[in-house]
Design a protein that fits this description.
The complex is a heterotrimer. Chain B is mostly helical. Chain B is built from 5 helices and no strands. Chain B is elongated. Chain C is built from 19 helices and 10 strands. In chain C, strands 2, 3, 4, 5, 6 and 7 form a 6-stranded antiparallel β-sheet that branches. A 4-stranded antiparallel β-sheet of chain C has the order 1-10-9-8, with helices on one face. Classes of the chains: A alpha/beta, B mainly alpha, C alpha+beta.
Chain lengths: 178, 139, 656
C-alpha cells in the first residue's frame, strides 16, 4: 500500500517546495555575500578627482559607515540617489562612495548634476577592489561596523525600508555599546 | 537574458574604447585548463551563462583575474577558493561534495541501491512463482 | 473587433471543455450512448474554436495590428514575414495558445482515430483531456490573454527578441509541444483505465501508438532545441543542463521508460502498475516543465517573463491534475501481482532494470534542477548545479544502460539462459573492442569517456544490425514488423548519439584570439584566414560581416561569414558562421571590435568533430518511434487470446 502512496507523497513534497519557491522568487537572482561577518577587504584606492591622495581601508575603521557602490553609467543608482542623500543628511551614519568602473569626468559630472552626499568618494577604476567586495552589480551597499566588519550587504538600491530595518537598529546598537 | 543585453549595450556605450583583447596563451595545456575552468564557473551577472561564455563586464574582469592567477602559478583549487570567498558557492557549477550538497551527489547512488534491492526481490518473487507454476503444470 | 472574437472563441472553447469533462464521464458510468458521444463532438468543436482563436492571433501579427498588446510587444514594422508567424509563440501568452491548440489537435485526433476503442473508455479519455484543456483555458483567459488591447495603439512594436528571429523558433516550439502535449494522451488513457477499472493488455496496446508518436515528437523537439542553441547561442555547446532543457528532458527519459514498460505489459501482462505510473508521471513532468518556465521560480535562459501570480495558478493546476491522478492511482491501481511470471534471466528482468535506471536518471535531473531552490528555501545558502554535476552522473548512469541494451534485444521473454545471451553478444563485444581501440589510437584526445562511449556505441549498433539480420532470416526473407524495425532503428540511433556525445566535447578544438585582416590561424589542421569585415544591412538590422576563408592542406574548404548584428531596438547579437559536415563542424564567431576603426576583432574559431552524430542519432530515434507507431497490430480491436502466451510472444516477434 505504501508503494502506491509513494508517488503522491513525493508529489506533495515537491508541491510544497515549489510553493515556497514562488514566495522567494523575487530574490532568486540575489547572491548572498560570504563577506558578512568578516573584515572588510584590504584596499588602497585614490580619492575621486584627486588621484595623488590614496585612502587605505584601515583609515576608515573606527566609525561605522555605509559603503555605497555606484557609477555614472548605472541607471538604478540615479533612482537610489535621493535615498542616499537623505541618509547622509540625517547624520545617522557616514556614507562613503565607491565609484565603480567609471571615468573620472563622467563621475564628477554625475555628482555635480545629482548631488554629492558622500563624505568621501574613492575611485575603483579597474574594479579590482569591487571584486574583493564581491560586487556583481551596481548599486550595492555594504554596512561596515566600527571594527571594520561587514555586517550587512544590500544588493540593489537602498530603500527607506532597508534603512529602517537594517541600518537604524544596528547603528543604535553601536551607539549604545561603547 | 534581456538584462544582460542591456548590460552589454550600456557597457559598450560607456566604454566606447574597447572590449578586452582576447587573452593570449603560449601554453596550449594552460589554455585548455583555462577554458575548462571558466566553463565550470558561473557568471554572477548573466546567471544563465558560464564565465567562459558571458560578455558581462564583470565576467571579463574575472576572466582576466583568473588568467593572471594562472600565470602566477596558482592551481584551480586556489582560483576557485578566491572566487568562492568573494561570491560564495553560487559561482561553482560543480557543487561541493560535502556539507549540504552531499545529499545531492549521493542521492542517485542511494536510489539505485534501493531500487536494485527492490528489483532483486521482485525478480526472485516472479522466479519462484514461475517455478511453482511449472511444478503445478507438470504434476 | 476581430481580436475580441478570438477571445470569445477561447471562452467558447472553455465552456465546451467543461462540458466535455463532465457529461461523457456520466455517460460512461451509466452506459448512456448520447452522453458519451458528447466527448467526440466536443473534441471537434473545441478544436475548431481554438483554431479560430489561433488564426485570429496569427492574422493580427501578419497585418501588424499594434492595437493588440501582445503583437505590439513581440513584433514591429520591420519584422520579416516568416518571423511574424513564429512571433505568435515568441512569448508567454502566445506560446500558451499554441500549447492549447496542440492539445486540442491531439484530443481531436483521439476522437477521430479511436474507432477500435470501447465507447466508455473513449468517453473517459476524452473527458480527461477535456479537463486538462479546461484548466489550461482558465489559465489563459484569466492570466495570460493574448488578445488584450493596447490603447492608444502603439506606433510601432517593440520587436521580437533577436535571438528568436531565426528559423529555429519557427520549428522548435511547435515540435516540442507536439511531444510535450502529446503525452497527455497516454496520461488520459491511464486515468481513463483507472477510472473504469480497465487496466488491461488491450488498454496498453491502444495507448502505444499515441505514446510512440508523442515520444518521437518530443525527441525531435529536444534535438531541434539543441541544434538551435548550438548555432545561435552556445559558442559550440549543444546542451547546457539549463533548468528548462532539463524540464523537457525529464519527460523524455520517463517517456522512454514508459514505452519499454508498455512493451512488457502488452506482450506479457506484467508491469501494469509501472506502466500506469509512468504514463501519469511523464505528463506530470511535462506540466511541471510548463510551470518551471513560466513561474519565475528558476533562473533560466528560456524563462518567459516570469510572474509568480501565474506561477500560483499553474501550481494549483498541477496539484489538481497530477495530485488527483496520483491519488487515483493509489486508490484504484490493480492490487494483485498480475500477468505471466518470469525467470531471473529474461527480457522482463532486463526491462525492469531498464525502468529503474531511467527513473533514477530522471530523479537525478530533477534533484539537480531543484536542489538550489531547496537550499535557498531552507535558507541554507545559494549554490549552483550545472553541467559538471549533471554530465558526470548522466554519463555514469548511461554506462549500465548502454551495456545492458543489447542484452535486452537478444533476451527472450519469460526465460532465457545467460550462456546463450553471452554467445549472441560475442560479435558485438568484438566490435566494441575494435571501436574502443580505434578511438584510443586515432583520437588520443578522446580520453577514457570518449573511448568507452565509442566502444558502447559499437556494442549497441552492431547488436542492432545483427538482430535485424536474424529477424529477417527467422521470418524467412520477410521483413520484420514495423514495430520491430522501428525499435531497431531507434536503438541504432542511440548508438550514433553516443558517439557524438562522448567524443565531441573531448576532441573539439577552440581558439579565442585577436585578428586583423590578413591574419590566419591553424586549428586542427584547418587554416582560417581572416579577410576583414564589411558593413551589411538586413531587413531590420545592420551588421559587421567578417569573411573567413578556410583551407585544409592548401586546398580551399569553405568561406564563412559571421556577423555582429545591431537590431533596430538596440540589441546586439552575434550570428556565428558554420560549415556543417558529417564528421566535423567548423564554426567561427565574431566577438567584439578591438579598435575604433573596426579593423581588429576578437574572434572565436572552433573545430567540432562528430557533433552532427548527436542530432542524426536523435533523428533516427525519432524515425524509429514514428515507424513503430504505424505497426499493423495497433489497428486491431482485440488482442488474440492464446493458451500459450509466452510461445506466442516469442513467435510473434519471429514472424510478424
Amino acid at each position: 500500500m505504501i508503494g502506491r502512496l509513494l508517488p503522491v507523497i513525493i508529489f506533495l513534497a515537491l508541491g510544497i517546495l515549489l510553493a515556497v519557491g514562488l514566495k522567494i522568487a523575487d530574490h532568486k537572482t540575489e547572491i548572498p555575500s560570504p563577506l558578512i561577518g568578516k573584515q572588510m577587504p584590504e584596499f588602497t584606492l585614490p580619492v575621486l578627482g584627486q588621484p595623488e591622495v590614496m585612502v587605505a581601508h584601515d583609515e576608515l575603521i573606527g566609525t561605522p559607515f555605509l559603503l555605497n557602490v555606484w557609477a555614472s553609467w548605472c541607471v538604478t543608482c540615479r533612482v537610489e540617489h535621493p535615498v542616499i542623500e537623505e541618509l547622509a543628511k540625517s547624520g545617522l551614519i557616514r556614507v562613503v562612495g565607491l565609484n565603480y568602473r567609471d571615468e573620472e569626468a563622467d563621475a564628477q559630472a554625475w555628482l555635480a548634476r545629482f548631488g554629492n552626499p558622500y563624505e568621501l568618494n574613492i575611485a575603483d577604476i579597474s574594479g579590482r577592489t569591487a571584486i574583493d567586495f564581491g560586487v556583481y552589480a551596481a548599486p550595492e551597499s555594504f554596512l561596515v561596523d566600527p571594527n571594520g566588519t561587514i555586517v550587512f550587504k544590500q544588493i540593489g538600491a537602498v530603500t527607506p525600508e532597508i534603512i529602517k530595518e537594517e541600518i537604524v537598529p544596528r547603528v543604535m546598537e553601536w551607539r549604545r555599546a561603547p | 537574458m534581456k538584462n544582460c543585453f542591456l548590460t552589454l549595450v550600456l557597457a559598450v556605450l560607456a566604454f566606447s574604447a574597447t572590449a578586452a583583447d582576447p587573452l593570449v596563451f603560449t601554453d596550449p595545456a594552460m589554455e585548455e585548463r583555462y577554458n575548462d575552468l571558466t566553463a565550470e564557473l558561473r557568471c554572477a551577472v548573466c546567471q544563465n551563462q558560464s564565465l567562459a561564455d558571458s560578455d558581462a563586464e564583470l565576467a571579463q574582469d574575472l576572466r582576466k583575474e583568473i588568467y593572471d592567477m594562472m600565470m602566477a602559478g596558482q592551481d584551480n583549487e586556489q582560483i576557485k577558493t578566491f572566487l568562492v570567498d568573494r561570491y560564495g558557492d553560487f559561482v561553482l557549477y560543480r557543487p561541493a561534495m560535502e556539507g549540504n550538497t552531499l545529499a545531492l551527489w549521493l542521492m542517485p547512488g542511494v536510489l539505485l541501491g534501493i531500487g536494485a534491492i527492490a528489483v532483486f526481490f521482485t525478480v526472485r518473487n516472479r522466479n519462484r512463482r514461475l517455478a511453482t507454476e511449472r511444478q503445478k503444470g507438470s504434476s | 473587433m476581430i481580436p475580441e472574437l478570438g477571445q470569445v472563441a477561447l471562452i467558447g472553447a472553455l465552456l465546451i471543455a467543461l462540458i466535455m469533462g463532465t457529461l461523457p464521464l456520466i455517460g460512461a458510468s451509466s452506459g448512456n450512448q448520447r452522453l458519451m458521444k458528447i466527448g467526440q463532438t466536443g473534441a471537434i468543436a473545441q478544436f475548431l474554436l481554438i483554431l479560430t482563436s489561433f488564426v485570429i492571433l496569427t492574422w493580427a501579427f501578419i497585418v501588424q495590428d499594434f492595437s493588440v498588446e501582445y503583437v505590439a510587444r513581440n513584433s514591429n514594422y520591420q519584422l520579416p514575414m516568416q518571423y511574424r508567424f513564429s512571433a505568435v509563440w515568441g512569448s508567454h501568452e502566445g506560446s500558451l495558445l499554441l500549447w492549447e491548440l496542440i492539445l486540442c489537435m491531439w484530443t481531436f485526433a483521439v476522437a477521430l482515430f479511436s474507432k477500435n476503442l470501447p465507447d466508455d473508455f473513449r468517453a473517459r479519455t476524452l473527458a480527461v483531456l477535456g479537463w486538462v484543456s479546461a484548466g489550461f483555458l482558465l489559465f489563459v483567459i484569466f492570466t495570460s490573454n493574448p488578445f488584450g488591447r493596447l490603447i492608444p495603439q502603439a506606433a510601432d512594436g517593440l520587436d521580437l527578441n533577436p535571438l528568436l528571429q531565426d528559423p529555429g523558433l519557427i520549428i522548435h516550439p511547435p515540435m516540442l509541444y507536439m511531444g510535450y502535449v502529446g503525452f497527455s494522451v497516454s496520461f488520459a488513457f491511464a486515468v481513463a483505465a483507472l477510472l473504469g477499472q480497465q487496466v488491461t493488455r488491450d488498454w496498453v496496446r491502444w495507448s502505444r501508438p499515441w505514446t510512440h508518436v508523442a515520444w518521437a515528437f518530443l525527441t525531435l523537439g529536444i534535438a531541434l532545441g539543441s541544434w538551435w542553441a548550438y548555432y545561435e547561442l552556445g559558442w559550440g555547446g549543444w546542451w547546457f543542463w539549463d533548468p528548462v532543457e532539463n524540464a523537457s528532458f525529464m519527460p523524455w527519459i520517463v517517456g522512454t521508460a514508459l514505452i519499454h514498460s508498455q512493451a512488457v505489459t502488452e506482450k506479457r501482462g506484467t508491469f501494469r502498475n509501472w506502466t500506469l505510473i509512468l504514463a501519469i508521471t511523464t505528463f506530470s513532468l511535462c506540466l511541471l516543465g510548463t510551470f518551471l518556465v513560466r513561474s519565475g521560480v528558476l533562473t533560466s535562459v528560456h524563462a518567459f517573463a516570469s510572474d509568480p501570480t501565474r506561477g500560483v495558478f499553474i501550481l494549483t493546476y498541477l496539484a489538481v491534475v497530477v495530485g488527483g491522478s496520483l491519488l487515483l492511482f493509489a486508490i484504484r491501481a490493480p492490487a494483485m501481482v498480475q500477468g505471466s511470471n518470469f525467470a531471473g534471466v529474461s527480457r522482463e528482468t532486463l526491462l525492469l532494470i531498464n525502468n529503474l535506471l531511467l527513473v533514477v536518471m530522471a530523479a537525478m535531473v530533477l534533484t539537480g534542477t531543484l536542489y538550489p531552490l531547496l537550499l535557498d528555501a531552507l535558507d541554507a545558502g545559494k549554490i549552483s548545479v550545472g553541467p559538471p554535476y549533471f554530465g558526470t552522473l548522466f554519463a555514469l548512469l548511461l554506462v549500465p544502460i548502454a551495456v545492458l541494451l543489447p542484452l535486452g534485444f537478444y533476451s527472450r521473454w519469460q526465460e532465457d539462459s545467460l550462456g546463450r545471451l553471452l554467445r549472441e553478444l560475442l560479435v558485438p563485444g568484438i566490435a566494441a573492442l575494435i571501436g574502443g581501440l580505434a578511438t584510443a589510437f586515432l583520437l588520443p584526445k578522446a580520453g577514457s569517456w570518449g573511448i568507452a562511449g565509442v566502444a558502447g556505441a559499437f556494442w549497441i549498433m552492431t547488436s542492432c544490425l545483427r538482430y535485424y539480420r536474424q529477424r529477417v532470416s527467422a521470418g524467412r526473407g520477410r521483413r520484420p514488423s514495423r514495430g520491430e524495425t522501428g525499435m531497431i532503428l531507434a536503438h541504432f540511433g542511440v548508438g550514433l548519439f553516443l558517439i557524438g556525445a562522448s567524443l565531441t566535447n573531448a576532441v573539439s578544438s577552440e581558439k579565442h584570439l585577436r585578428m586583423v585582416a590578413g591574419d590566419s590561424f591553424e586549428l586542427a589542421g584547418y587554416n582560417f584566414v581572416f579577410e576583414g569585415t564589411r558593413g551589411v544591412r538586413g531587413p531590420n538590422y545592420v551588421a559587421d560581416e567578417g569573411e573567413f576563408i578556410v583551407y585544409k592542406a592548401g586546398k580551399r574548404v569553405t568561406s564563412l561569414y559571421p556577423q555582429k548584428r545591431r537590431y533596430a531596438n538596440g540589441q546586439v547579437m552575434t550570428e556565428a558562421a558554420l560549415d556543417p559536415g558529417l564528421t566535423r563542424d567548423l564554426y567561427v564567431g565574431l566577438g567584439e571590435a578591438l579598435n575604433d576603426q573596426g579593423t581588429a576583432w576578437a574572434v572565436r574559431l572552433y573545430h567540432k568533430p562528430f557533433i552532427r552524430f548527436i542530432w542524426i542519432g536523435a533523428l533516427l530515434m525519432m524515425a524509429g518511434g514514428f515507424l513503430a507507431a504505424t505497426d499493423r497490430r495497433y489497428r486491431r480491436s482485440v488482442t488474440a487470446r492464446s493458451e500459450n502466451p509466452v510461445a506466442d510472444a516469442n513467435l510473434a516477434e519471429a514472424t510478424a
